[in-house]
């Protein structure tokens, strides 16, 4: 496959949503794009700003946090998408603190054991769950 075909294949994959470099590399590999062409296509897309793992990590972390995800769930999601641990840490640091996000969930769902279980299932730390559910307003 020619480099331009590899870039076009990658661009089609990016039309619907942003992807990490690792996700796009895997997609190109599935489509039969050779290693050299894949590397060149990804480098081209990074150079022109279409691929940026740090931006992807920040955006994805914000999306998950807005859907009541805790730090552990966000970290797991980003690492599963091939994001570098330093970029994952940066994305988490840019978010509102986990305890504040947990308090907001408790404010909307109520201070109950069911809410505590919900927060825990959404990747909130035990400290954040306890602080939010036991907080005195």
Task: Describe what this molecule looks like in 3D.
The radius of gyration is 19 Å and the shape is elongated. Helix 7 packs across helix 9 (126-134). The protein contains nine helices and no strands. The chain is mainly alpha-helical and 137 residues long. The protein folds into three domains: 3-51, Orthogonal Bundle (Arc Repressor Mutant, subunit A); 54-93, Arc Repressor Mutant, subunit A (Orthogonal Bundle), CATH 1.10.10; 98-134, no CATH class.
In short:
This protein has 137 residues and is an all-alpha fold. The chain contains nine helices and no strands. It folds into three domains: 3-51, Arc Repressor Mutant, subunit A (Orthogonal Bundle); 54-93, Arc Repressor Mutant, subunit A (Orthogonal Bundle); 98-134, no CATH class.
Count the helices. How many? 9
Please tally the β strands and state the result: 0
Domain count? 3
How much of the sequence lies in strands comes to: under 5%
Coarse morphology: elongated
Query: What multimeric state do the chains show?
Result: single chain
Kindly state the percentage of residues in helix. Answer: over 70%
- CA radius of gyration: 19 Å
The CATH architecture term of the largest domain is Orthogonal Bundle
H/E element sequence: HHHHHHHHH
Q: Could you tell me the mean pLDDT?
A: 92
CATH class of the largest domain: Mainly Alpha
């Amino acid at each position: 496959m020619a480099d331009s075909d590899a870039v076009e294949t990658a661009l089609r994959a990016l039309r619907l949503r942003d992807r990490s470099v690792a996700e796009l590399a895997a997609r190109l590999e599935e489509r039969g794009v050779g290693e050299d062409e894949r590397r060149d296509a990804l480098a081209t897309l990074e150079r022109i700003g279409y691929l940026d793992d740090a931006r992807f990590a920040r955006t994805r972390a914000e999306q998950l946090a807005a859907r009541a995800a805790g730090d552990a769930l966000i970290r797991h999601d980003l690492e599963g998408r091939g994001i570098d641990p330093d970029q994952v840490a940066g994305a988490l640091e840019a978010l509102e603190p986990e305890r504040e996000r947990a308090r907001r969930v408790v404010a909307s769902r109520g201070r109950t054991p069911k809410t505590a279980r919900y927060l825990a299932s959404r990747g909130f730390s035990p400290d954040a769950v306890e602080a939010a559910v036991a907080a005195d307003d």
